[in-house]
Amino acid sequence: MTDILPPCPECRSTYTYQVDALLTCPECGHEWSPEAAAESGLEVRDSVGNLLADGDTVTVIKDLKLKGSSSVIKVGTKVRGIRVVGGDHDIDCKIPGVGPIGLKSQFVKKVTD
């Protein structure tokens, strides 16, 4: 079983790797501990105030145009297995038919089962 490593907190590179007890970014050289990343206290909430966590499922609440494309992510699109990150686009995910993308949490709502 392979673990999915978090992106670099400095440059957001997804090419991180583990050396002994530290995670390392090959692009900017930043090193950090996995425990420090988990305890960073990053708190991201959806459009109605629900706390989002890695692995949650959300739905898009507004048609979103994709920059540099004529494609649109339609309202009601369900996105599974999100990853909460810092920055302007605070959700990383993969949307079927679109691919990997960053979303703003203000345009999604958490799906509760």
From TrEMBL:
InterPro entries, sorted: YjdM (IPR004624), YjdM_C (IPR013988), YjdM_N (IPR013987)
Superkingdom assignment: Bacteria
SUPFAM superfamilies from the UniProt entry: Prokaryotic SH3-related domain, Zinc beta-ribbon
Entry-linked Pfam families: YjdM (PF03831), Zn_Ribbon_YjdM (PF08274)
Domain (Protein YjdM N-terminal): residue spans on this chain: 5-33
Family matches, as Gene3D superfamilies: 2.20.25.10, SH3 Domains
Protein YjdM C-terminal domain residues: 44-111
Similarity comment: family membership: Belongs to the YjdM family.
Protein name listed in UniProt: Alkylphosphonate utilization protein
Lineage, uppermost ranks: Bacteria, Pseudomonadati, Pseudomonadota, Alphaproteobacteria, Rhodobacterales
